[in-house]
Amino acid sequence: MTPPRFLSGQGFVDTVVTHHTWGSWAFGDVASLSHQYAAMPSVHIIGSAWSGLALAFLARRAWVSILGCAYPLATFTVIRSTANHFVADAIAGALTLTLGFLVQRLLAGRPAYPPTPVIGR
Description:
Layout: H1 15-18, H2 43-58, H3 62-81, H4 87-108
Helix pairs in contact: 2-3, 2-4
């Protein structure tokens, strides 16, 4: 389950080490508190898709909804280009979020984001 950035010599570059990325989970004292090999599922995708969907469904302006939809796509581009995740990690993250929404629907008996009128659409 290791991220591809740890597979040096396979065409991947560890951007955290190469660019001395400040603020990442592999930086300084934080590295001792994080699990650097836990890339599955991608929590980057879970978090960005969750907040992006909230923006898309709850926004009152069309352009905000579009930004909400674009956010997980931008996150996917970043996690792939920095070699933090494989595509399978991102798919597993999306499936994990989908499962969470399904469980919420079963428990609450309604969708997480009910349809709301949007101004400007």
